[in-house]
Every structure is written in C-alpha cells, then in structure tokens.
Amino acid sequence: MSLIIKTQANGLYQHETKAIADIRDAFSIEDEMRRVSPWYGYAGYTLVDPISKKEGEFDLILVTNSVLIVIELKDWNGKSIKSANGNWYMDDRDMGVSPVSTTRLKQYILVNKLKTLKDKFTANPGFVPRVYFFVVMCGKVNFSSLPDDEQKHVISLDKFLKFANKNSFNKEFTPHPNAQHLYKDFDLIDKIFVQKSTLPKKIIVQKYKQDDELLSHPKKLYTEYEATSTISRSDKAIIRQWMFSNFQELSIQSPKMRAALLNHERVISAEFKQSSHLYNTALVPLIMPDEDQITQQYNELVEYRQSHLRFNDFITTISPNLSDDDKLNLIQILLSKFSAMHNLGISHGDINSHCIWISPQKDVAISHFLTSDAKNITNNIRDLQPTLSFVADGTQSEIANVQAFKKDVYMLAVIVWHLWLNIRLTPKALNNICVNSDHWLADLVKRAINLEIEDAGQLLREFNAKRPVQVVEFIADTSFLNEYITAERLSRLYPEDDEIYEDDDNDVILYRSGDLCVKEWSDVHVNELSSSDILKYQHFFERIKEANSQNLSYLPSIERFGISTKSRSLFLVSKFVEGITVDQIETTKESRLLLAANLIEAIIHLHKLGLPIGRICHGSVLFNLDDNSFIFNDIIDINEYLDHESAYYPSHIDNPTSEQCQNYAIMRLVCEILGFDIGNDSSEFKWVSDAVNIELEESEYPLGDLNRLLESIETEQVHGDTPTIRIPVPDKFSELQIFADNKRIYVGLEKGRNASDIVVKMQGVGGAIQFILDPISKTIRFVTGVRESDVVPHYVIDQAVLEINVALDIKHSVGRPEYTEFSQFLFKLDEFSTAVNDVLQEQSNDQDESIDVCNNLISSDALIVDEQLLSNEKQPLVESSSKFTDIDSLSDEAQKLAALNIDTKKLWKAILETETEALPYIILSQPLHLVDSKIYIARYEDDNDVLDKFPKDSLISLIHKTVDFNGEDREFRVGDIDIQNSLAGELRVKGVKHADKIKVGEVLYLRTKADKSSFLKRKNALEQILRRQSDIPNLVEYFEPNSEINPIHYDITVTDRDFERYDQYDQQGEVIVSLNNLQREAFRKLINYGPVSILQGPPGTGKTEFIAAFVHFLFEKQNVNNVLMVSQSHEAVNTAAERIRNHSHRLNTPLEIVRFSNRENAVSNNLKDVFSDSIISTHRNLFLTEMEDRVLSLSQSIGVDRDYLACALFLKVHLFGHLSRMWVSTESEDNKLISKAEWNNLSTKLIERLKDYSKELHTALLGWNSRQVLDRENQIWEMLDEVFEVQGKAVNNAKALVQIAFDYDQLIDSPNANYETYLSKTRQFICGTCVGIGHHSIDIANQSFDWVIIDESARSISSELAIAMQSAKRILLVGDHKQLPPLYSPEHAKALGRKLGFTKNRIEVNLKSDFERLFKSPYGKAVQGKLLVQYRMAPAIGEMVSACFYDKELVTGVIEPLGKPYQEKMVRVVPNIYQHCSVQELRSTVTWVDTSDKFSDGVGTTFFNKHEARKIIGLLEKIYADEELLKELRERSKPNEPPIGIICMYGEQKRYLRKQFNSKSWNEDFRSLVKIDTVDSYQGKENRIIILSVTRNSPDNKIGFMNVPNRINVALSRAMDRLVIFGASRLWNMPKHQESPLGEVFNYIKEHSSDRTSYQYIADRNAESKLNANIKTNTGRGISHE
Prior knowledge:
Layout: E1 4-7, H1 14-27, E2 40-48, E3 55-63, E4 68-74, E5 81-84, E6 87-90, E7 93-97, H2 99-115, E8 131-137, H3 148-151, E9 154-156, H4 157-161, H5 166-173, H6 186-194, E10 199-200, E11 204-205, E12 208-216, E13 222-229, E14 236-243, H7 255-271, E15 297-302, E16 309-310, H8 311-317, H9 324-343, E17 346-347, E18 356-358, E19 364-366, E20 373-374, H10 385-388, H11 393-398, H12 404-421, H13 427-430, H14 440-449, H15 456-466, E21 485-486, H16 490-493, E22 498-502, E23 508-513, E24 516-522, H17 531-549, E25 558-564, E26 569-575, H18 589-609, E27 621-624, E28 629-632, H19 658-674, H20 686-697, H21 707-719, E29 724-729, E30 736-738, E31 745-751, E32 758-764, E33 766-774, E34 779-789, H22 794-799, E35 802-804, E36 807-812, H23 820-827, H24 830-854, H25 867-873, H26 892-896, H27 904-913, E37 921-923, E38 929-930, E39 935-939, E40 956-963, E41 969-977, E42 986-990, E43 1003-1008, H28 1016-1026, H29 1035-1038, E44 1048-1049, H30 1056-1060, E45 1064-1065, E46 1071-1073, H31 1077-1088, E47 1089-1090, E48 1092-1096, H32 1103-1116, ...
Parallel strand pairs: 1-2, 4-8, 8-9, 21-25, 29-36, 48-53, 48-54, 49-51, 49-52, 50-51, 52-53, 55-56, 57-58, 59-66, 59-67, 60-68, 63-64, 63-65, 65-66
Antiparallel strand pairs: 2-3, 2-10, 3-4, 5-6, 6-7, 11-12, 12-13, 13-14, 14-15, 16-18, 17-20, 18-19, 22-23, 23-24, 24-26, 25-26, 27-28, 30-36, 31-32, 31-35, 32-33, 33-34, 37-43, 38-39, 39-42, 40-41, 40-43, 41-42, 44-47, 45-46, 61-62
Helix pairs in contact: 9-12, 9-15, 9-34, 12-14, 14-15, 18-19, 18-21, 20-21, 27-28, 27-43, 28-42, 32-33, 34-40, 35-36, 35-39, 35-40, 36-37, 47-54, 48-50
C-alpha cells in the first residue's frame, strides 16, 4: 500500500519536497507491516506543546504500524560537520544550534501531544506510542566526527530509505508485539494534525519567521510575507518566496540568471549612495544570495520598515485624516524622490501600489527595483523584466513601448491622482483612469498620462510652478484696541495730587490721585498708529490683564488701563501702596533671606508672564516688615528702560539686554536687603555674596537668569544650620561625634523587651548610638551602645524609619547622665512622635494577631474575642501634634493606616528632595535572553512603557543594585538600552555584563547617561511651582488639605443648545450619546470656577466624552489660544484626542493638534498625521525637495549667474557634503552604509553627474578619488570661479548662500533644530503623557497654556502633575481618588517615609494623590464636579460598588431586562446570555465563591493560592464547555478585547494562574478570550466577565494592603455583565475585618443574596465540613496549606 503523506507545503523548501517524495516512493510497498492499513506522514506542520507552549515545526512525521518517527531534513553540502558548544559547524561555518537538539525538543512536543490521548488509545490501551527522531542528511557531507550521542540520531537519506524494508525497520526500532497495531488509532492521531490549532510549518529565514501574507505577484512568481525575528518581536523583515518554476522563460533555470535576478535590486540601490537624500529610500534584500543555494523555491529576506505602509494601506488608514495641504506636501515629497532617481539616470519601470511605502511622517520609501534600469550599470535581466512587472495587462499595452522615464511619469501621475482623491489603486482602477476635475492638479496629471512630460524632474518642477502660494497680508487696525480706548480726559478722571516721578524727556509721569497711582505715557495718537504699534499695545494690554487676573501679591491691584484719546496718552491706574524702601529694612537674618528669595521668585515669574518691565531701582520696591511682604510700585512699562547712569545698570556687560538689566537690578536689591554692597564679600551671608560674585564673573551669558542665585539662598533657608545636641554617656562608652550624612541622621525604631519600651538606633557619619525610650513619659531611660563608623551602610538606611538633621556630640557625663535636652528635641519633631506611635500600634496589632492565630481555624461567626483583654493589652499612644489623626478612635488594622495631615508644601519638598530615589525600574519577568553576541532581551510585565519617561535619543543604562557582604550598597551597569528597537515589555540591551548574576524577579533600574536620572524634568517642574514661578504663582496653596482660597468666578454661560451639539446619532437619527444632566451640571461648574478645577470620574461615567466636549467648547466658544492635555497612559491620550478631533471635524472647528511621544507605535493610527515626528519629518522632506529651487531663485538678487549658483550648490551639498557624510558612515559600527573602498570610488559617479552643471569642471576632475576631492576642496572652488569667470563680491555672496543652505541641510536632521519646541508653541491642542511632555525638546516649562487638562490625575505623583501644571493659567484635574493611587517606586516611597516620619504601614495611605487632597479640601469642594452616572456595570455590580465605595452616590445607567421589553433610551443593555447558561457561577450578576478550605502561600511580600487557582480553572472549564455561551461572548467582543478577565490581587497569583491556564489544552480561540492580570494593570480597562482572585488567606489573618479600598474598587468595577469573586469568606467575615472594603462587599452580597438573579454565595463545602469538625473537637488543625 502507498505511504499517504498529508502536506501543508507553504513552509517546505525545494530539497524537503524532493526528499519527502523519495521517502513516499520508498515506503509505498506491500509487505506484512502495511497489510492492514497504509502508513501516514505529516509534512510541514507546526505543533504547540500543550504544557510549555513552545512551537515545533516538523519537516515530516511518519506514523507507522508501531512507532512514530520525527524527521528533520537537512540539504547540506560540504566536507564535514563538527559539534562544539551546542552548535554545528560545517567546514568551520557556524550552522547554528545542533539540529539534534532542536529535533529532540520536537520529539518532546509530539510525545506531550500524544500523552493527552493516552486514555483513548485502543491498539495498546494505557500506553503512549514510542516516538523516535532522526536528522536526515539529504546532501553530501561527512558527519562521522559528531559525538556519539548526536551521531546515533543522524543518518543519510539513502540509509533512512532502507528502513522501508521490514527487517531493517525491526532491527532499528524493535517494536513490541503489543504495539504493532497502531493502525487502529490512525484516526485518533490524525486529529492532532487536522484540528484548527495545528498550523502549517512557517518559513524561517535568518532567524526571521513567517507571519501573515502581504503580497502575491499576479503571475505567482513570488509571494511576500511579513516576518518577525525569533529573537525579538521588535525586529521585522519581509520574506519573499520565489517560485522559479512559474517563470515561462527557460533562462531562469540557470543558477547564474537566478543570481543576477536576486542581485539586481542591490545593484540598483547601490547607485542611490550618490545622493544624500536617496541612500535610505530603497527597500532591498538584506542578504547576498549564494548561487549554489538558489533552488526552484527560494526564500530571500527583504528590508521592512514597520513605520511605513504600502500605498493602499496608507490610503485606507492615514490618508482620510490628511488635509489638502498635507496631501500636496506628500505629493511633492513623492515626486522629489523619483526626480532624484531620474537625475541619477535610474528608472523604476514598475511603479504601482505595491512599491510605494509611506510613513505617517510622510517619509517615502520605494521597493521592487526588479524592473529598474540605470544608465551606468549592465542590465543582465532585461529579458525577464516584462514578466516581473506588476502593471495590469491593459495599462501595460498603453505604455509598453514608451521610454522608461515617461513610463514612470505616467504611473506616478496615476499614483498622485489616487492619493489626491483618497482612492485605493487597483487593477480595475488602472484600466479605467478618469481625470475629471478643474483643479490645477488635474491638468498636470492629464499632461503626464498623455505622455507630455519627459521625466520626474520636469513633473516636479511643473508641480512646484503650478501649486498656488498663499500670501497673507496681515493688517492690524485700531479696532483691535477698541475695548481699551476711552474719550475721557485723564486729568478729569484722575486729578493729580502729588507727583512721584517724571522722566527727563517728560514722556512718562507717575503721580498720586487720591488712593490711586497713575502712570501716564504721553504723545500717543491712536489715528497715527501703525500695524506694529497696534499689535504692540494690544500685547501690552493683554499681558497686564493676565497679570492682574492672577492677583499677584507683589503687584498693586490694577484698577484701569488703556488709551485716552483726549489726553493723547497711554495710562495705567493702580492702587497706591505705602511701605519702606530697601535702605530702611531692619529685621532678622531669616526674614532678610526670605525677602531676598521672594524678590527673585517674583521677577522670574514676571518674566515668564511676559509682562513688560521698565525701571527697577531703589524706589521701585516697597517693603512691609509686618508680614515680610513687598510690592512693586512702579515696574510696568511699555518701553524698555536702559539708564546707563543708574547704579542699577550692569555697566560690566557690553550692550546688555533689558532682561539682563532687570536681573542685575534685582541682584543689587538682594545685596541691599542682606546689607552688603554688590561685588563685595559678606561675613553674615557669605554663601550669597559668593553666589553673586559667580554671577558677576559669568562670561558666556551673564545674568541670563537668577535661578542659581535663588538656589543658593534657598539651600541655606531650607537646611539652615544643623543643630548640635550634647548627649552625656557613662564612661564605659567611647566619646565621639556623629555628623549628619548630607543633612541626614538615620533613625531606626524597634520594640523593646518590655512592652512599654522602644529601642532607638541613630546613625550618621562617625558612628551610631542606641538607647531605650519610654514613650509614655517621653524620656530616654538609658543608652545601651555607642559605636564608631565612618560610613552609613545601605542596610541601615533601608531599615531606618526617619531622617533627622542634627549632629550628636557624645561626651562622658559628670555624674548621672541627663537626657532631658535630647528627649525634648526628639519629641518636638512631629515625625518622631508619629513614628513612635506606629511602633506602639504594631505592638498592639501583633498582640491582636497572636490571639487570632490561636483561633484562626474557628469560623468568624464562632470567634469570640475578649474585648476587655484586647483593651488591656494595648499600650497608650504618644500624644503628638494635631497634624495627624487620633488613631485611638480607629479600629484594629485601620489604626496602623491612619493618615497624617501633612502640609502639601512639606510633602512636595520631600518629594523634591527624594527624587534621586525615584529611578524608573523594571522587574525582570524572564531570564536575560541572548539575541546574538551583542544584544540581550530583558522582558518585564507592565502596562506602562518604562521608556516613555525618556527622550527618544537618550543613552540609557540598565542598573542592578545589590548589597555586598559588608552590607554596603553596590551597583553595576548591566548594559545599555537600545531605545529605538525596544518595545513596551521588552528592552534590548547592548554590552551586557554579568548576565548570569541577574535573576528573574530582580529589580533593574534605568538611568540616563546625560543626567543621573531622567526625572530631572519632574524635579525642576515641582521646584518651579514651589518657588512660585508657575503661571499660577500660589498653585501649591490650592492643594493644601485645609485650603480655603475663594475660587474665581468667570461668569461663563453654557446653554443646552451648546450641549446638544455634542449629541451623537445612530443611522435612524436617534440620539445614542448625549451629556446627561449631571455631566452638564459639572461642565458648567468647572468652566466657571477656578483657576484650579477638579472632576471626579468614577468607573464607566463617560469622562472621555466629557473631556472631548469640554475641550472643543473651549476652542469654539471661549476662543482659547492653546490647551495642553496629558494623561498617565498613551491609550487615554489617544482616545481623548481622537474624540476631540472628531468633534472638530464634525462641527467644522479648525484645530491644529500635535501629539507628542518618543515612539510612533504609542500613537494611534488616527493621530499618526499629527504625531510630532510626522509633522517634523514632513517639514524636513519639504525643505529638501525645495532647497535647490529656493537657492536658485535668489541668483539674480545676489548678482550671480544661475548656472554658477547651481554648480556651487552641487559642489557644496552633493559632492563635498555628501562625501563627508558618507565618510563618517564608514567609521560607524552601528550605521555603516558604505565600505571605505566603496567610498573612495564614490566620487567617480558624483563627478560624472557634474557634467550636467559644468563640462569643463567635469573634465578637470575625471579620475579623482574621494580622498583627493575632499583634500583639494579649495582648489576645486577656485576652478569653479575660473570656469564661470565669477569673482569678488558675487563669489562671496554665492558661497555664503550655499553655505547657509548646507548648514540648514545639516541642522534639519539634527536634534538641535528645536522643532518640537516650535510645535508646542504654535499648535492649539498639545497632548502627550504626563512625563513624556516634559522632555527638554518640548520646553513646556517656558510656555503658557490657557488650559491644562490632566486625565488620570489621581494616579499621578506630584512631580508628574507639576510638569504640565507649571505652565497653566487654568487647570482641570480629571480622575478618581477612589481608584488606584499614585505609583511610587519602593525606594522612593521608603525615602519619603523617612523624610516625613511615617513607617511602612502608613506609606500607602499617606502617599495619597494630590487629586484627593484637593478634592477633599474646602476649596476643592467649591470647584469640584462629579460624574455620577455609570454606563459600564450591570445594575447589581454598579449598586454594590456605589454602596461600598461611593456612599451610594453612583447611579447606574445600565439595565438588565432579562429578555423583557424595555423603554429606556441611552442606556447600556446587559445581553440575556447568562441566566440560562450551564455555568452556575454566571447565572447571578454577582457571585462570591468561598475558598476558605486552604491557606494561601507567601512568597516574600506576595501571595499565591493554589486552591483558589484550581477553582478558577474549574470555572473556566465550565465556560469552555458551554459552546453557546462562548459563541455569544465571541460575537460581542471587540478585536483585542477579551470578554473574560481574571484579576489577581497579587502578582504571584497572576503568574501561578497563567501557568495553570497555559498547561490546559484549550483551543487558541478560547485562549484569546481570556486575559489574566493584576489589579494594578487594570485601571481604565473592562471585560464582560470579571473573575476576581482575592488570593490572600493566611494563617495570621492579616489582610495587608487590602485594607485600602482603592484596589478593591478598581478590581470590582472592571466588570460589565458578570462578577465572580473567589475569596476566603472566613477571613472577611471576622469582626475585625467586616468594616474593611472586602468585608463590606462580602456582607453586601450576603445581605442581598435573597435576590438570586443579582447575588449568590457559593460555600466551600470542604471548609464547612472541617469547620463543623473543628467546632466539635475544638482543635485548630482544620485548614491546611496546599
């Protein structure tokens, strides 16, 4: 009988197909082994291991009557094969990992597949068939040198074919008699291969593995596939699979012709190296073909740029968002590429949709040069090119005999027209080209398709000539100033009482009028003002209005300003203020420093506001020492003030700017406040006088700003002098001095042996002291130890709970030691008292827990605790400041989480001082994986992209921190991160050292080389706000917990008609989305009260729709200039920006947007055209296309011949410039475009192009190599001048012009071009992530935004908020403080705890968000809006979440009619697919499944629960078995949004559950329906079914962070239709935990479980039976660990 082989042949090579045919022929014989049934083979299949999930790609599997044989086919030809270090080498050529090793893995995969069928085999019941494997060598090579353990699995094809003989087969495989009936199970084995999840074998070329098909040639000559690197998914390429058997031409059967064909594209693209702007345009094959290896079916690897889309894909996804100008810009760039090609003498020959690639940045790449021709190369495949063409047959005949360039122009015109109309280019469209339009572009396209244009250069020139240039002449008239003009006479309005000041020319006068101060600028004639004058006055008035609106304490209240036509003067009227001048100041040192710092902060802030400043001198500032305030009584001036005679003029600077003059004047005033002359030393304020002298000696840019001087003053203010406390000790201890380490003595606190004692350890530089503290009497009982130490070890810092700025002088006591001074010092510190209280509370809780442990097996209903005993055991707490909550009033675990009422300014300063602890980090989720000899992959699991915190050009090191055996902190550099090729979740690391020392679960930190931390932007932003340099100067005060600032009322009307504009309709015209009444109420409140407003958006309440409407209203109705919107995640930014853009398009509101990100893949497709890099790239490409025309257009104006200028430009840019640039490339290891030999010969081709500009110069340079050209540049310039007979001024002008063009050409590609700053200052709507927007290139700090909107702000730490807030005139914070809190790195949180004096137990509750601080303050309550209708959760889920977390305020906009008719509109309807399904847990909306039977296991600080995981897998198995339910879920799921989400409260449970889930044999379809993650990765996401794994059920009955409600709220509120909670009810039903978040949820479910459609409780029967047994026997061994 025949051997029947089933083939999925896509991934089979030619040699494999031939070998399989030989095997089939040899094994297709009649004998006893094949008497009953034929044997089977499976070729080209991919199997997935059901356990490890690893894939195996099988060349061939033989299923005989007794065994299975895995066959790996290798067609290798050479002398010999050797093995070393796991790799094989053929004739010293590395062939990769041993095929024996890889095939053995495939054997394991097949065995594991068979094991899943073990109980179903009938031929030999209960046994799995044996599986053998061989590497079968089809070529000629000697493998006898392989080691024995490998050689026995390697065999030649000829020898393998002999196994077809029964004797040879039995001798090799010795099948057991009982195993020779495998034919009975052929159908069973067949199911392994025919099921949907069994994929064809994938093609692999050079470690790139085939993915989806991209393109197939019309004549089936080749097929192209997208391919992903098997090492890193960030690497992509194209696999082009040739089918040479499909060619009609016989010549293709020649290996030489095939090699010529495969090399043709490389030969053509090599010509591109002549051009600066073409060399990176071509997409060409990546590997050189070996002529001997080119078989009938051949796979080559072609370059693929993931950022680029093929023409038709671009038309579909990106083009619809482009404006007409965008499209014309893109057409210009496209034409310029082909113009440059034609200039080089290169035609393409097959322009079509398949070969044009366009990125969202409007960068154009070109592929498929198989049909290209070039004048300077020999075309060896000309006869094949007609066959290779993609052009449709009908069109081919029209241009078949047309000259190559004209043919390109014809197809270019077709491409251009389709791009303009936004139509995909198809064969049908090509055969029916119709250009009916009166647009100027249509005329050009018609000329091109009528073959009237010679080449792409002419097409580009005519395009540029025809394209209209819009010239806008801006004329300002006096109507711009109408609101500021008055006809009233100033002398009548404000009669003069007393003159204060008049300048020498009588142009400006300052006088008093009653309680007002009037400043008047004379000789202002409105009717004679020019446009520039009008704009100048308008700007002046707008700046005054802006400054006055901020109620700045250091500016007098401005009552009126404008122009009086009768007085013919400009005027400014303010409140008259009184005070003393600087020479009259007599106050304390501290007050002087405070005044000096505040004065500098004020001038910095005024500069940022852009307020025009004039005279600053002795009398310009008046001081009030009662409250240490000051006011500028005369500082605003429309004219620059430069008084060269004034003592406040910086005479040491030549031609100083007005800002330098103002900074000098302020610095002089600072010196006068502090009582010393500028330039002299001060004994009292030496550090300030030193800083002043540094500023005076600055030469590069003197007095550019005063931040350094301010920093020096503030540093001393903040730290002051470190106090020294003397501590007397007995003689048995050494005397020593302990100094603060960078202002820090580290304090550790522990419980003492006696219940009332606390052991205190304090360590700094010089040593440590330990003593016993009595917290009740607040006294030190005695010192127990003193030890010398030069340094503070890392472990001491890590264990410290507090930092104190003090020096300790330890001396021997005279008589009995007295510690009163020291103890009083300590207890005056609120932080110390708080830390002591925490230690006492831990003692109390530990005693409580010891009682719990004794009773942990008795149910909470049966657990009776002696409350009196508990109260007696608790220790009294230390009395401390009222600044934190009285924790006596709190119960149990809530006590240790009591929140301190920390001043916001104090908190922000602590954050500022601990920023160095806040390095971004990853937790390694897999071992470091070696890609090649240079690159490792470091994988981590996090929804947020850690690299988003860094600019795209950062040099980032990966750092591992350790502690050595001495307890010292050590760190080493793991390697450097390749940021451009890394992905979210996957870092590519170069230069890795000590990879073996890095284990899974290790924390690895990221640090830039430029800064020690990339977080300097955050630090600087927070510093700016604390210094009152933000646009809202008192911004920090709005965030104080007790802030009672009166909000500003803006009196803005928003009508119902305004809201209706944002309604969305279905196809029947029914409103399906509309802002509800509560949203409208919030909208009106937020826009009317500020400047800081706050919006709470609980889960599913439509905050994105709200933000979109709000922002659109600001632009359309409020005419704001600019809005900055940021968020924590890219997803939130994209979604909101898209909605805003949709409103703008739909309502015809022009809106210029820029989306900032350091990587394109974070930006959604609908925003790719406004991605910052896209806009910048477009500008860059347009400049390059227009540069020559722009330069040559100036030839007449500078007095030189146009041809001379053209030749000079070619020499500078294309000859000298390009040769220099390419020489740099030869020196680069990472970006080598050309070898040194190729470079030296590059000049030959460039000189050849020179004859188009000057035949004489071309002749003179013939034969010069590249080195000679560069070395003789000056000589060539002289030759140019002689040839064109140009000299003198004309030469200098021409060379200066081409130098400018060249410099701009260089600059435009450099990071110094400041494009991003320009975009952020000129676009209306700017958006990005909180941290990403802070990159220095965007320069947010030096800008001002009318509104800043921060989404997800409750998750942001202060310094992240500060980046955007510092530049805001008005702020809207959007978030929900009842969801996830800000995320601090562990080290940063610890450092903050030490700084503020709270222990690890308080960290979570004290590091609450600034959003919450603002929301709960008196000010916050006055300005807050709430969105309280949720459209996500089914009613039972929503009502439970509302009751347990939102004080029953959250209203549900979802209905679950259960199949009954309903009338409600604009509500979400829960589908009726659950109530009658087979899965009991899903029949009720909310289900609690008890898992009390087993305890959880702890791993470090995290937990996992096998018992709970097993129950969850059991639930999934039930869902998997319900095909109807799965069908419904699948149909209701959006792409990439699984309907089933499993949320784990602990990371270890997530890892364990994923492992268990992956070990099951679900089909791939079901796998795609389930997502498993932690709660911290889930905010903002939702699933139809949420399964919550509570996990924790530890014997000590502690609940850890689950006492904080935020995470519980997030976990529950992700559910749309169904919520199933798996948790130990015995824990949450305990009296001590019933008021915890999950305790309340459990009680809510139990109380409402009578409504079975909504709530049910499923008991753990095992736990119940054990519980009953425990009660009867009163033992404590009923629950066990698993």
